[in-house]
Amino acid sequence: MESRARIQLATSLPGVKPVALVGTRDARGGANLAPFSSIVHLGSNPLLLGMVSRPDVVERHTLVNILGRRCWTLNHLHPDLVRAAHQCSARYPAHVSEFEATGLTEHHEPGFAAPFVAESRFRVGLELAEIVDIASNGTKLIVGRVTLVQLPAERLRPDGSVDLEGLEAVASTALDTYFGITGSLRLPYAKVPDGSSRGS
Question: Across the chain, where does the E strand assignment appear?
Fold first, then answer.
C-alpha cells in the first residue's frame, strides 16, 4: 500500500480510540500541545495511564518535554475543541506554542509544571512513572501516574465512572476522523452462574 494509506489502515485497526491533547512544557518554559489517540488504562492501584510515542528519528517535542519535566496533562476533547486540537498535529517548530497558534488557553495548577487546556471539560495530570522501549518498531510506551483529575462534579457518577456522553467526549480513528460518543447500555458486573466472580 501507499505509505499514507498504510498508516490510515494501521491506525484504524484498533477501532475507535480516546483522543486528548497532551500538554507539556519545555526546558525554557514554552508550552506544547499535541493530540494523542494511543492512550490506554494500565491499572487502578496505582492509577496508571500509558500512551505511545512514535520513533524518535525526528524531534518529538512531547517526548523531550516529558523526559525533561517528568509530567504532562491529558485534555479530553469535546466538539468545540476538535478543529483546534486537530491543528495542533501540524509540525510547528519547538519555539512555537500550539496554544498561541490555535487560540487555546493555558490553565495552570500550583505545583504542576505542565499546562492544561482551559477549554477542556475533562483534564488529567500525570507524573512520569517509566518509559518502556518497544524494540520491534522503536516506539516508546510512556507510563504516567495520575495525580490530578478535573471535571464537573455532576459528570462523576457515584460508582466512580465518568459520564463521557454528558461531557460530549470525542473519540477518533485513523489520522483525521473524529466521533461523538453516544451511550447505549450499561450492564451489571458479570458473574458465572454459581454467583462467584472468578477472573478470566
Answer: 17-18, 20-25, 31-36, 40-44, 47-53, 71-76, 106-107, 116-117, 123-134, 139-150, 170-173, 177-180
Model confidence, pTM:
0.90
Distances in whole angstroms, Cα of residue 107 to Cα of each of 20, 90, 94, 200: 15, 22, 20, 42
In whole angstroms, what is the distance from residue 91 CA to residue 60 CA? 10
Q: How many CB atoms lie within 10 A of CB 197?
A: 8
The domain locations on the chain are: 3-180
**Percentages helix, strand, coil for the chain, rounded to the nearest 5?**
20, 35, 45
Q: Which residues pair with 25 in a beta bridge?
A: 31
Please tell me the distance from the alpha carbon of residue 135 to that of residue 132, in angstroms, as a whole number.
9
List the grid coordinates of 153.
462534579
**Tens place of pLDDT for every residue, the chain, 200 residues?**
898 898 889 888 888 899 999 999 999 999 999 999 999 999 999 999 999 998 765 567 999 999 999 999 999 999 999 999 999 999 999 999 999 999 999 999 999 999 999 999 999 999 999 999 999 999 999 999 999 999 999 999 999 999 999 999 999 987 789 999 887 788 888 998 875 555 55
Write down the CATH superfamily of domain 3-180.
Electron Transport, Fmn-binding Protein; Chain A (2.30.110.10)
